[in-house]
Structure formats: structure tokens, C-alpha cells
């Protein structure tokens, strides 16, 4: 779809808030242009990104929801830590936790980079892998300055593409 077609489609729903996500949006040609166009149309816009690609050129009005991949994901080497420099109070940094090792790793990263002072930090249990209650209890026990987040889209629609 062209940027104009996307804007028409988005406009047909009359939203106030638009999230650009799916796969890795920043890998798509025109993503930055789309984000700018959505902002220009007056939408509140967020970008969900894997954290593996540079976010420095993202419009500062866009809320960045950036993942840091945990060790169990097998993708920790793809984390682009310089992206942390482009996060501010409106942005979110998300860790999807699969097990105790991931939890301890994420906890150390939050402390090392003082992330809770920079942005909102989210800990999310990997669906079907990490028990959500156990993760919530660990967060409470350790008094972490993070927000517990369930992957609501997976509860509502499972792994259905486009949902």
C-alpha cells in the first residue's frame, strides 16, 4: 500500500491512537515517512520495534516501544544498545521474559542502565512459557520499578497475523 492508501485506511476507523507494528516496521521502506504523515494528520502514534534497528531518525513525537531481547530468545546479540539514548519519559522499553535467567538478566540491565529513570519499563511473560503469576510475584518481591504487562493481543487473537 502507498502512504496515501494507508492514511485513508487508518482514517476510515476514526482512531485517535495508531500503533505501527508487525514484524519489524523500521525494516520497511517508507516507515519513517508513514510515522511523520500520521503525526501530521494529528494522530497519537506509537512504534513497536525489536530494538535491532536504529531509532535515531524516528519523529520525536512518536512513542517508541522498544524491545530488548533476552538471552532465551536467542537474539540478544541483535540488541542495539545505542537505541537506549533515544528513549525518554514517554517511551517504553519491553522485556519478554521466558524464565528465571531472563528475569535476572533483565533486572540487571534495568539497574545497569538506570532504565526506569529514562522511560517506562515493561516486563512481559512469554505466552505459554513463563508463568505470569510467577513473574508478577518476582517483580513484587524484588520491588522492581517496572510495569507488568500481559501480551493482550495474544490472549484475544492468538498468533493470527494482522491482529
Automatic annotation (TrEMBL):
For this UniProt record, the keywords arranged alphabetically read as follows:
4Fe-4S, Iron, Iron-sulfur, Lyase, Metal-binding
Quote the InterPro entries the UniProt record gives: Aldolase_TIM (IPR013785), rSAM_sf (IPR058240)
Q: Which PANTHER family match?
A: 7-CARBOXY-7-DEAZAGUANINE SYNTHASE
* Native source species: Methylocaldum szegediense
The top EC class, named as a word, is lyase
Q: What is the lineage of its organism?
A: Bacteria, Pseudomonadati, Pseudomonadota, Gammaproteobacteria, Methylococcales
Which is an annotated GO molecular function term of this record?
lyase activity
Q: Key word Plastid present in the record? A: no
Identification of the protein by name: 7-carboxy-7-deazaguanine synthase
From the UniProt annotation, give the residues forming the signal peptide: none
Q: What is its EC number?
A: 4.3.99.3
Amino acid at each position: 500500500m502507498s502512504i496515501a492508501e494507508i492514511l485513508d485506511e487508518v482514517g476510515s476507523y476514526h482512531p485517535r491512537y495508531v500503533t505501527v507494528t508487525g514484524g519489524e516496521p523500521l525494516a520497511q521502506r517508507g516507515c519513517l515517512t508513514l510515522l511523520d504523515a500520521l503525526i501530521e494528520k494529528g494522530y497519537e502514534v506509537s512504534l513497536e520495534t525489536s530494538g535491532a534497528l536504529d531509532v535515531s531518525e524516528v519523529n520525536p513525537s512518536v512513542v517508541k516501544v522498544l524491545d530488548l531481547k533476552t538471552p532465551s530468545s536467542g537474539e540478544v546479540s541483535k540488541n542495539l544498545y545505542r537505541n537506549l539514548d533515544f528513549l525518554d519519559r514517554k517511551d517504553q522499553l519491553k522485556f519478554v521474559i521466558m524464565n528465571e535467567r531472563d528475569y535476572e538478566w533483565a533486572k540487571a540491565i534495568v539497574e545497569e542502565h538506570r532504565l526506569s529513570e529514562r522511560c517506562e519499563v515493561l516486563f512481559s511473560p512469554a505466552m505459554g512459557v513463563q508463568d505470569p503469576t510467577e513473574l508478577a510475584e518476582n517483580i513484587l518481591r524484588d520491588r522492581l520499578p517496572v510495569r507488568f504487562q500481559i501480551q493482550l493481543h495474544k490472549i484475544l487473537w492468538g498468533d493470527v497475523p494482522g491482529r
